Amino acid sequence: MSNKLKITIENNTALITINNPPANTWDLESLKFLKETVEKLNKNKDVYSLVITGEGERFFSAGADLKVFHEGGKSAAIDMSDAFAKAFEALSNFRGFSIAAINGYAMGGGLECALACDVRIAEEQARLALPEPKVGLLPCGGGTHQLPRLIGEGWAKKMILGGEQVDANTAHAIGLVEEVVESGISLDRALELAAQANKQSPISVAACKKLIHAARSSKKSYGYEKGPFVDLFDSKDQAEGVTAFLEKRSPEWKNA
Fold first, then answer.
1. Contact by Cβ (8 Å): 240, 136
2. pLDDT of residue 224
């Protein structure tokens, strides 16, 4: 169990709320619990759809807590990258229909969580980014594979390599999210869409989803980033990036 994730089930829909204020960050506890929760939901024949959102009005999720890497170093990087890959792979492979109700900032591992869902609904004030290179890291929860699959290599490079943060309307225009809604109603819309999907055969939905996923060109989406991510902890820039962020200053890159 984890109080950092709230789980409720109603009308064949499981609702997972990321509840780790102030920014709904991920840690080993919540990532492990997400994986275990999805695996249990897969065995629950009364659950057809899954909705995931963030607690509060500002953050869907800001990703990993950088203090974990600052304090734990390479050992923490190994554990966290493994946990991210396993949790979001499990979410991606949820047998039913999954929807991310993006109620605010979705950054780093927060966006990767949304990328693991079948559909993303963003509120108009939402901001989305994979900013890991800003602190000497890289996305380790499927981002470098899932983002270009959705929006194309050019925009994926613009976001990851160029540090571009996109608003909800831009995200919709490039195919990163399927819908943009007014502030405060992403969860309502996600539950409405889940209810619509719940009218379909869950067995049929599960079979269709497997076939859709089988059409993806890459078989190495999750876990493939772990090695390069951990290797960054041998660099000076990784330590400088995280330290600078925590000290609220601009990093001084050494390119080493």
1. yes
2. 72
Q: Respond yes or no: is residue 252 known to be catalytic.
A: no
Catalytic residue among 132, 182, 192, 225: 132
Per 3-state DSSP, the chain is made up of helix, strand and coil in percentages (nearest 5) of 50, 20, 35
Rounded Cα gap, residues 137 and 143, in angstroms: 12
**Burial status of residue 145 (CB atoms within 10 A of its CB: 0-12, 13-18, 19 or more):** buried
55 is catalytic: no
Catalytic residue among 55, 112, 123, 225: 112
pLDDT in tens, 9-59: 999 999 999 999 999 999 999 999 999 999 999 999 999 999 999 999 999
The separation between CA 255 and the C-alpha centre of its own chain, rounded to angstroms, equals 28
Q: Are 41 and 194 in contact (CB under 8 A)?
A: no
Alpha-carbon torsion (114, 115, 119, 125), positive or negative: positive
CA distance 126 to 111: 11
- Its CATH class, for the domain covering 5-183, is alpha beta
pLDDT tens figures, 64-109:
988 888 888 899 889 999 999 999 999 999 999 999 999 999 999 9
How do the domains of the chain map onto residue ranges?
A: 5-183
Please state the pTM of the whole predicted model.
0.89
> How buried is residue 65: exposed, middle or buried, by Cβ count under 10 Å (0-12/13-18/19+)?
middle
What one-character DSSP code corresponds to residue 61?
E
CA distance 13 to 97: 9
Q: Assess contact for 52 and 7: CB atoms under 8 A.
A: no
